[in-house]
Amino acid sequence: MNLILDIGNTLQKIAVFDSDESVYSQSFKKITKEILASFFEQFPVKKSILSSVADVDVQIVDFLQNNTKMIRFSYETKLPITILYKNPETLGLDRIANAVGAAALFANKNILSIQAGTCLVLDFVNENGEYLGGSISPGLKMRFEALHEKTKQLPLLKDLDDCINLMGTDTNSSIKCGVINGIKYEIEGYIKDYNAKYENLTILLTGGNANYLQKLIKNTIFAAPNVVMKGLNEIIKCNA
Fold first, then answer.
1. What's the rounded Cα separation, in Å, for the pair 230 and 101?
2. Does residue 3 register a pLDDT over 80?
3. Residue 162 belongs to what domain range?
4. Out of 18, 94, 159, 193, which one is annotated catalytic?
5. Is 161 a catalytic residue?
6. What mean pLDDT value characterizes the chain?
């Protein structure tokens, strides 16, 4: 079995894969050596991969190196797809893993993978398994925070309404209308333009706000919650 660790700035995630199947997945505020050890009591883990955008406790690294065949994921790691990004060393590891996972889910297809989380991140992999690039813009929460923090009077809104009208009739509904419809139109606009350029395009939506946004977007899309973790597992298989 393979152990996947994805260390982010806010959450730290662990997944266990048995071949291609995810048998366990959970998020933590901080992963400790003791938490890791408990997984080895539950699962016969042989290989691991560590992906991190933040500092990692040296005890975690030592534990994985001593108990598994570990991969420390970087832009130099062997991949099952080809990266054609101009500066691959500046490409986020989560974007690489997401692209690998998307390509594994929909092999030999043009794929637009949309991560709707802290940021709205679009990544494109063509039918030849080549990652070409994408875009980054603020996510829902960041847009609400920016309106509040960069003005003197606008409130900070957090709740998402399922029913958003074309126009707001007070300050709160105007903010929600602007933020939620704005990100909806942004996604739909990108999908329209990618569809015009690439035939047989598959749209993949993932990230913390994926389920919410899927209900608003008028396109055929596939919601997949653990694309990054699947991609990291594919990278382990590629380096076996």
1. 5
2. yes
3. 75-240
4. 94
5. no
6. 92
